[in-house]
Write a structure and sequence with these properties.
Blueprint lengths: L4 H12 L5 H13 L1 H63 L6 H20 L4 H23 L5 H21 L4 H5 L3 H24 L4 H25 L4 H32 L10 H32 L1
Bound molecules: zinc ion.
């Protein structure tokens, strides 16, 4: 053999893709005629090409299947939409025929929109299905509340809407924040965004309830009770998310905070009820205080253990250095 196998195997990929020079092609072919080893290498190169082809074909099949299912689900969505429009039409005619104008028809319409938001929207929307479905569901639910409120001439809309919004946020916010496209915008502040959403919708709900009940003592009382709880939730969140410490120390911080804050809270409510019952004469007893104190002391104990653990670890690190 004129050329050694290493040289030829370097040329083989070029030969296989037919991009080598005429001279190289001749050399390779002459060598291949007498060398079974290099022939084998060439065959294995061709096998790789076949693998690549299979992968490509697989992707094409998957893509065309996905397109097929998208078209199918859009079709199913329009069929269900048509079916939903039948009761809407019937109610429209009945309402017009029996009443002086359109009244309860709007309730039926809004109710069917709620159902449609859960069934049709995920079928028809090509991307971000979950986000769009949740938004459509929330919007149609608010619409339903609004329409019923107008029809019954109630004044409960804002309370119902704000409370529902708070509940839905509690449920949906984690799912929304941990999914594309919201996930990409929030990056590392997903937890913060969820906490902000909870606080905002909770505040909105309390505001709506306060304005609805028109009780002068509502806002001071609600503020006094809700503030420590909200502060506690934030303190726990901030501790777990942002403080760099061992788990025992973090647990200690959280439990201490819970003990102190619920202690303050139960103290305040006990004071208020005592004042109410005895016309301001202080005969104070707080049945929850011992419990809060023991929770607090468990927290402090964990704080101590956690601090010891981290001090011990630091000592170990320094020794290793
Ligand atoms: Zn060879």
């Amino acid at each position: 053999m004129k050329y050694n196998c290493d040289l030829i195997s370097d040329l083989l990929p070029l030969y296989k893709d037919e991009i080598c020079s005429e001279a190289s092609r001749k050399i390779v072919e002459e060598h291949l005629a007498e060398c079974p080893d290099c022939k084998k290498i060439l065959n294995s190169l061709n096998d790789v090409t076949i693998d690549e082809k299979i992968v490509k074909e697989k992707e094409e099949v998957i893509n065309s299947q996905a397109k097929f299912f998208k078209r199918k689900s859009a079709f199913a969505g329009s069929i269900i939409g048509l079916i939903f429009s039948i009761p809407i039409l019937v109610c429209l005619i009945v309402n017009l025929a029996t009443g002086a104008g359109l009244t309860w028809f709007f309730i039926v319409l809004a109710a069917i929109l709620v159902a449609a938001s859960l069934i049709i929207v995920p079928l028809m929307v090509p991307e971000n299905k979950m986000l769009t479905t949740m938004a459509a569901f929330t919007a149609s639910l608010m619409l339903l509340f609004g329409v019923i409120n107008i029809y019954t001439q109630g004044r409960w809309f804002f309370v119902a809407a704000a409370s529902t919004l708070f509940g839905l946020t509690m449920l949906f916010a984690p799912f929304i924040c941990f999914r594309r496209p919201v996930k990409n915008y929030l990056k590392k502040s997903k937890g913060l965004a969820i906490m902000c959403a909870y606080t905002a919708t909770f505040t909105l709900m309390m505001l709506c309830i306060g304005l609805h009940v028109k009780e002068p003592m509502f806002f001071p009382m609600a503020f006094a009770i809700a503030m420590p709880l909200v502060a506690m939730a934030w303190a726990i969140f901030a501790t777990i998310r942002y403080i760099r410490a061992n788990a025992v120390l973090k647990t200690g911080i959280c439990i201490t905070a819970v003990g102190i804050l619920t202690g303050i809270l139960s103290h305040m409510t006990a004071m208020a009820s005592v004042k109410e019952a005895t016309n301001g004469v202080v005969m104070y007893s707080d049945p929850w205080l011992p419990l809060m104190l023991s929770i607090g002391s468990i927290g402090v104990l964990l704080l101590g253990i956690g601090a010891l653990i981290s001090a011990f670890k630091k000592g170990n690190k320094n020794e290793n250095k």
